[in-house]
Write a structure and sequence with these properties.
A: alpha/beta; Urease, subunit C, domain 1; TIM Barrel; 8-stranded mixed sheet; 14 helices; B: 8-stranded mixed sheet; disordered N terminus
Chain lengths: ~450, ~500
């Protein structure tokens, strides 16, 4: 590297970091502020040191950098639940996917946090959709997660080998933020994931009765292990079906301190899950719950939250025959705490989370409840209430300024902060767009443009 | 209408496609030639045993579609987006005998006795056309016994017809209609280089496939570039296993098809020797060569599209539409020059290597050159319910890039351009005088996330009404299933 280029490099670095150094207080003024649970017209949001200082109608503090949001909407960053952001680059490229694991000795103990990549090209794309945090969940290798394209689904498994008895559990989820930088992990091991219903039955041998039985037997083994660790270490305990790592990982699930995300669809299965969870003292979060509206009162009475995709309305299988667009509205009306998911594993299409919320609104969910379902509710469900997902003093400054209603496709993000740091609204996709926006037929090939 | 039996079977299908509805009854047989307008045959064709000469019965599974009961109607007061690029405030759409009889501003005359629909404060558009659907062939429920979209047994299955897999009871037809979809291109899957014939259907409830079949619409041929065929067959240690294997497979098939077509043409001209043996596979490819069957080519990558264009020149046929054209924006000027439509998603990318370079601006960039044909498609039973939103996201991305694009223009991506991509733009795709009255009344601007299709008309007949359970059809499969008849969130469910 020449001296000259060194200087230019240094100047470039300064230019990037300078604004944050010069003005460490930011005030977003004049916008319609969605706090996550309320609406403030002509509001002022003040950010300092990575956190929200105040949200109200007062004047901006002296010396603050002002972002004029008149005619715009200011909202908390959206939280993608049931997401694979940072854990998978190209879904079909196995080596770039760290969301599912096939070993029968590392199932419950599988921890997605080790595989997270802060440089993932999916993160800037999600940011453009207003996503600032994600709950990254492992996928069960035996099925029950993600979505396959119809063009591919019918033959994707042809000629491929079977699974190595992956066990009942997919592994443990993490909370991440999407800020540019070297570390996106907010909190590892926030929840355990397990498929129930058809997928879980398939893992256990084919029938639901086998899975529930195996699940309860597993909990019994975990408790036995937890009471007799020293005997286990001396090889003085009877043989257990799980590895030591998996047993250890399941202790907080068995004692009710770590929530278990249960992928479940059919109303009958939901009732079974609620009953077994109550009897075993396990804290559950329902994921999917397409038929949840049929048993909404039971879910509400159990105080169990639900992660759902409001546009899943087709009887795609025999466990979603009652799927309806009104599911989100019905569960919310019954008092269930809901979070709305993005599409297709919420990785590349995490940015569609806001559209899913909008479609829930057009099918009966109150607007404020839809905003809550992609901001404050996910934080509540995953034990981070008050820490992010809402615009209120003390919360992490994940703030997005929108050109209009953020649930509308015709609106775009104009400013985006994560932990108080303004993020660039660029992505690899936008670089491609710019490279070809004039048609790509100039004398110099597109490869020469940046 | 002219019809020359010497030019082969598939021309009859094309002739039917070009004809108006009045001539439709003639499309079921070759007897259209008896109307006296056709060129007299040079020679009496030697009759072959029944079924061995495709020209004798070029439409063996004919449409039995009849429009639902309808009345002459005028829709008044709405903001009308015609699909052909224009916007009319406080517009009037007059529907006579299932066709658009007049369209214009508030001054447009409404004949006496017409039913008037008050659409003030609402929006009216043409019915949405999804050019890439697997409804019926990959139906809900997606169980093994019903998964009939890919005949993944040979890289060339041009002989299979999607209509022979189509289950009309797929509940997805109803949910698509509730999203404003009135016409669907139903395609085989993309496991094979040649997946088979696709069929265009009217989105009406029917006990039979024939009852949905779009009268006179040209047949489609599904082809697939790229990862899918080479993965499926390479995984079985057979060809194609690579991109070059894909091309070799395409070319070998067109060589055989050209030879097959030449043999039939010669036999019809001379009547000498033995007639060729009819081949369903070759018949479909010969239909591509004579222009009567329209290619719908799954092709993600720009470089592969360029190869397919050259191959079309090598064998002398036209490509109508590239589907899943994720990289179409990289060759937008070429596509416009070639007159090839590109059918695209807005939001789908990154699920496999050939989709890695997907950008939300694809439709806007493809749309920019003169003569272009940008289409938004679904390939998905959920997305097809919201093609208006997928178009809105594409429009929004284009505007984010600084492009000036109106809503009335962008609506063409899911209406008139889509009709062109299926070869039915003379019949539907826009609200223009003489066309089929496929009409959607939206509760709000269809580019808003909150817009719902209030009423959907197909050929002037009301087929869906969001407020009236009598016009919310359910498939047989949905009857009596869990949740049947129960209100969710206070809404009695006819539309899911």
């Amino acid at each position: 590297m020449t001296f000259k280029s060194l200087i230019i490099g240094a100047l470039t670095a300064l230019a990037v970091t300078a604004p944050a150094l010069a003005q460490d207080t930011v005030a977003i003024t004049g916008g319609r502020v969605l706090t996550g649970s309320a609406v403030i017209e002509n509001g002022t949001v003040v950010i300092r040191d990575g956190r929200i200082v105040s949200v109200g109608t007062g004047a901006a503090p002296a010396g603050a950098r002002i972002i004029d949001a008149r005619g715009k909407v200011v909202a908390p960053g959206f939280v993608a639940v049931d997401s694979g952001l940072g854990g998978s680059e190209v879904s079909s490229v196995g080596g770039s996917d760290d969301l599912s694991n096939n070993a029968n000795t590392i199932s419950a103990s599988f921890d997605v946090s080790y595989g997270l990549d802060p440089w993932s090209i999916t993160l800037p794309v999600a940011r453009l959709g207003g996503v600032t945090r994600a709950i990254v969940v492992p996928n069960h290798p035996g099925g029950g997660g993600g979505h396959q394209h119809q063009d591919d689904s019918d033959f994707a498994g042809a000629g491929e080998g079977g699974y190595q008895s992956p066990g009942l559990f997919a592994g443990q989820a993490s909370i991440i933020h999407l800020a540019a930088g070297t570390d996106i992990l907010v909190r590892p091991r926030v929840a355990m994931v397990a498929p129930f219903g058809e997928a879980g039955a398939g893992v256990a041998g084919g029938a639901r009765g086998a899975e529930f039985t195996q699940f309860r037997e597993t909990l019994a083994e975990v408790r036995l292990y937890a009471r007799n660790k020293s005997a286990y270490d001396r090889a003085g305990l009877r043989d257990l079906s799980l590895s030591r790592a998996d047993l250890e990982a399941l202790i907080p699930v068995a004692n009710g301190t770590m929530p278990l995300i249960v992928t479940v669809h059919r109303a009958a299965d939901i009732l079974q899950v609620l009953r077994v969870a109550r009897e075993e003292g396990v804290k559950v979060i329902l994921d999917g719950a397409e038929e949840g509206w049929l048993v909404a009162a039971d879910i509400a009475a159990a105080g169990v939250p639900v992660l759902l995709n409001p546009i899943s309305n087709l009887p795609g299988s025999f466990e979603t025959r009652a799927a309806r667009m009104q599911n989100a509205a019905a569960l919310n009306a019954a008092g269930v705490l809901i979070a709305i998911k993005g599409n297709e594993g919420s990785i590349h299409r995490a940015r569609e989370t806001r559209y899913n919320a909008g479609n829930a609104v057009s099918h009966g969910l109150p607007y404020e409840a839809a905003i809550a379902a992609i901001t404050v509710n996910p934080a509540r469900i995953f034990g981070a209430a008050g820490q992010f997902g809402e615009l209120r003093a003390g919360a992490a400054a994940d703030v997005v300024v929108w050109s209009g209603d953020p649930l509308e496709p015709l609106s775009q993000a104009t400013n985006l902060f994560i932990n108080g740091q303004e993020q660039s609204l660029t992505s690899r996709s936008l670089l491609l767009r710019d490279r070809y926006r004039t048609g790509g037929e100039e004398a110099m090939p597109p490869a020469y443009s940046r | 209408m002219t019809f020359d039996p010497l030019r082969g079977a598939s021309l009859a299908v094309l002739a039917c496609a070009l004809a108006g509805s009045l001539a439709l009854s003639g499309c079921a047989t070759t007897e259209a030639a008896e109307d006296g307008a056709g060129t007299p045959p040079v020679r009496e064709a030697r009759a072959l045993p029944t079924g061995l000469d495709a020209a004798v019965n070029p439409d063996p599974y004919p449409s039995t579609y009849r429009p639902l009961p309808r009345e002459n109607t005028a829709i008044v007061g709405a903001t009308v987006l015609t699909g052909a690029g224009t916007r009319i405030e406080n517009g009037v759409v007059v529907i006579t005998d299932g066709r658009v009889a007049a369209i214009g501003g508030a001054e447009t005359a409404i004949p006496a006795g017409y039913r008037t629909v008050d659409a003030r404060g609402r929006f009216v558009t043409p019915g949405i056309i999804d050019v890439h659907s697997h409804l019926g062939v990959y139906p809900s429920p997606g169980v093994q016994g019903m998964s009939d979209g890919n005949e993944a047994t040979n890289p060339n299955t041009a002989q299979v017809w999607a209509e022979h897999s189509l289950w009309p009871q797929d509940p997805g037809f109803n949910t698509a209609r509730a999203g404003g979809v009135t016409t669907l291109g139903i395609l085989p899957g993309s496991a094979n280089l040649f997946g088979g014939r696709g069929v265009t259907v009217r989105n009406v409830p029917s006990v039979t496939m024939q009852g949905m079949k779009f009268p006179g619409a040209p047949y489609l041929l599904k082809m697939a570039c790229g990862e899918n065929p080479s993965r499926v067959y390479g995984g079985r240690n057979s060809s194609p296993a690579t991109g070059m294997g894909n091309m070799a497979g395409f070319r070998a098939a067109f060589i055989a098809a050209r030879d097959y077509k030449d043999k039939w043409d010669k036999w019809r001209e001379t009547g000498e020797g033995s007639p060729p043996t009819r081949s369903l596979q070759m018949e479909t490819l010969a239909g591509v060569l004579d222009g009567s069957i329209l290619i719908q080519n799954h092709c993600y990558r720009a470089d592969e599209m360029a190869l397919m264009v050259d191959m079309s020149r090598e064998f002398g046929y036209r490509i109508t539409t590239f589907h899943h054209a994720v990289e179409a924006y990289k060759v937008a000027p070429m596509l416009a020059r070639e007159g090839i439509c590109a059918a695209m998603w807005t939001g789908w990318w990154g699920f496999k290597m050939e989709s890695l370079d997907g950008v939300e601006e694809n439709a806007a960039l493809v749309d920019a050159p003169e003569g272009s044909c940008a289409v938004i498609h679904s390939d998905d039973a959920e997305l097809t319910q919201r093609l208006n939103q997928e178009a809105a996201a594409a429009l929004s991305a284009g505007r984010r890039a600084g492009m000036t694009i109106s809503e009335e223009h962008a609506l063409g991506w899911i209406t008139l351009n889509a009709a062109r991509a299926l070869g039915i733009d003379e019949e539907t795709g826009s609200l223009e005088t003489g066309k089929r009255a496929d009409v959607v009344i939206w509760s709000a601007d269809p580019f808003s996330i909150y817009a719902r299709a209030d009423q959907v008309f197909i050929d002037g007949a009301l087929t869906f009404d969001r407020m009236d359970p009598a016009y919310q059809p359910l498939s047989d499969f949905e009857l009596g299933q869990p949740g049947f008849g129960l209100p969710a969130a206070g809404v009695r469910q006819g539309a899911r």
